Amino acid sequence: MARYKNYSYEQAMFIPINFSKQIIPGSFEHALNYIVDNEINTTIFESRYKNDETGAPAYDPAILLKIVLYAYSRGITSSRDIEKLCRENVIFMALSADTKPHFTTIAEFISSMKDQIAPLFRDILLYCNELGLIDKSMFAIDGCKLSSDASKEWSGTRKDYERKIDKLEKTIRYILDKHQAEDQDEAKEMKKDEHHHIENIQKKISKIKQFLEKHEDKQGSRENIIKSNITDNESAKMLSSHGVIQGYNGVAMSEAKHQIIVHAEAFGQGPEHALLEPMIKGARENYKAIGEDDIFKEAKLIADTGFYTKDNIQLVDTEKIDAYIPDNKFRQRDPRFDTAKRHAQPIDRKKIIKNKKYFAAEDFKYDEQKKTLICPCGKEMYIFNNNYEYKGSKAIVYMCRRKDIIGCSLKSNCVRNQNARGRQVHIFYKRIDNQLLKKMRDKIDSAYGKYIYSKRMQLIEPVFANIRHNKGLRRFSFRGKVKVDIQWKLFAMVHNIGKIFRYGPGFA
Q: What pLDDT was estimated at residue 489?
């Protein structure tokens, strides 16, 4: 017969824990603990408390900051999870000195750091600068789009919301009409569930109507109407590498030596056209706060094509910034990409026409020598306007003949309004050049410009890889630009503390 070791669940074990001994030198938590205690000014939080004579003692902001930053370094953003770890994980116990703050205290501490987050970020940046970890010769800027605590299903314009209300009201009427046609006894249980369903629909209608009473349509940067969001109206619906999301664009600027973030800010807009100026301004303010001169006097600034606009090129020229911002066709002018089409996957045009709802301009065949345009149906289009101008570019406007559109088998794929006279197609043939834009394009096309721009990937992309994949920030857990910006800056601080831990003298 088998024999087993004796055991008893009634026995007890007392394990003495010295919290200071759990924070081991050479670990990330040791670097974090040292930096918060010695290099960050936490007295800026004192103005938030008025309990010097009356009231309960407050948790030390240094303690709360340590556990929040350490949790973020491990990809934990839930306040409830952080509270749980402070009770169960020995490292969190050590960093919090076993104070066990409640999750509401942690959440309120993070969300109310509006006035303190910038000075805290600058304290970390100052320490990086003092350790000699920052190279001031080159900076790169880019954005990382992340979902927030808001549903994209609640996005739309006023017309969209009005249609949604009408649809919900029709659903209620349908349920009520169905009740009247059914037997009262047999449908009693079913009616109870559907009555609850009607209440939920009415709550949704009320929610939409309350939102419409307080908000008008949001205007985009080009004075067009963009979609609002009932859950978080400061967020935006944007296209990312992970599909269409409802969230914020976390923009960061990093330096060339160790990819330390010199400025970080979250914006509720996907396009980055209007984000270059606030990022330059923020980086300058950060360096001014730590006693440095204008960092862009001699430094190079690299940005991707999302920042290429006439206003941004004008900005860097006026500010005398040595910037490298390519347009979206710079690779087409680069002879190194001449064979790129050879390696592309063949395109089945018939399949595209079959699956595409409407034809795009590239679906029309243009003969540059004859100046003629052939529609996908094989009909020749006539010139409607040969001097059309739009946003600095000139184009020839072609239009199909009325007789050709009538009875066309591809009409439903060509025009949205079936009563339209015909389809118009713009063929841009001459760009009204701007000297500054041409200067920037020539700069990017030069051998030195290509060399400098080739460094963009290694300067900024590792920052987002570290924050998203190593630190685990998959989505923002707050609503509203202020709170999301706080969380984005906290993760930027965690990133920079990691650089101090890895490369800083005395830590590495």
A: 96
SS3 letters across 98-151? CCCCCHHHHHHHHHCCCCCHHHHHHHHHHHHHHCCCCCCCEEEEEEEEEECCCC
Contact at 8 Å (CB) between 488 and 266? yes
Is residue 367 located within the same domain as residue 470?
no
Residue among 443, 428, 350 nearest 389 (CA): 428
Same structural domain, 44 and 92: yes
State pLDDT tens for residues 449-465.
Answer: 999 999 999 999 999 99
Three-state secondary structure call for residue 450: helix
Structure tokens belonging to residue 173:
């009427």
Give yes or no: residues 134 and 248 share one domain: yes
Report the candidate in 446, 444, 468 with the shortest Cα–Cα distance to residue 456: 444
The whole-angstrom separation of Cα 376 and Cα 362 is 10
Q: What does the longest C-alpha to C-alpha distance in the chain come to?
A: 99
Look-up of token digits 């570019």: 393
Phi and psi at 264, nearest 5°, equal -140, 140
The sheet that has 365-367: what strands, in order across it?
365-367, 372-374, 380-390, 393-399, 424-431
| Rounded to 5°, angle at Cα 306 from 314 and 125 | 85
Element (H, E) at 180: helix 158-181
pLDDT at 34: 94
How far from 313 is each of 274, 304, 320, 444, 480, CA to CA, in Å? Answer: 12, 13, 11, 13, 30
- Name residues whose C-beta falls within 8 Å of residue 94's C-beta, 6 or more positions apart in sequence: 19, 20, 22, 23, 29
- Indicate whether 199 and 258 sit together in one domain: no
Expressed in angstroms, the distance from the first to the final Cα of the chain is 56
Intervals of the chain under pLDDT 50: 352-353, 432
Residue 365 parent element (H or E)? strand 365-367
Q: How far apart are CA 469 and CA 143, in angstroms?
A: 15
What's the chain's Rg over C-alpha atoms? 30
Buried b (16+ CB within 10 A) or exposed e, 45-61: beeeeeeeeeeeeebeb
Residues 321-365: tens digit of each pLDDT = 999 999 888 888 878 777 766 666 665 555 544 555 677 777 788
Q: Is pTM beyond 0.70 here?
A: yes
H or E segment at 481? helix 481-503
Residue 255 lies in a domain: yes
Q: Which two tokens stand for residue 327?
A: 């347009």
Domain count, the chain: 4
3-state SS class at 253: strand
Looking at residue 475, the DSSP 8-state letter turns out to be B
Range of the domain at 378: 360-422
Q: Of all residues in the chain, what percent are helix, strand and coil, respectively (each to 5)?
A: 45, 15, 40
Q: Which amino acid is at 411?
A: K
pLDDT at 356: 54
65 neighbors 42 (Cβ within 8 angstroms): yes
